Amino acid sequence: MSEEPKKIGKYSVHSVAGSGNFGIVYAGYDPFTAKRVAVKVCSASTQAADGAARLFRKMFFNEAHMAGALDHPNILKVLDAGEDAGEPYIVMEFVVGGRTLKDYCSSAKLLPIERVLEIGFKCAKALDYAHRRGIVHRDVKPSNIMLTPDGEVKIGDFGIAQRMQLDITQVLGIVGSPIYMSPEQAREDNIDQRTDLYSLGVVLFELLCGRPPFEAAGFSRLIYQITNETPPGLTTLRPEVPKPLAQL
Question: Starting at the edge strand that comes first in sequence, how are the strands of the sheet with 99-100 ordered?
Answer without folding.
Answer: 99-100, 145-147, 153-155
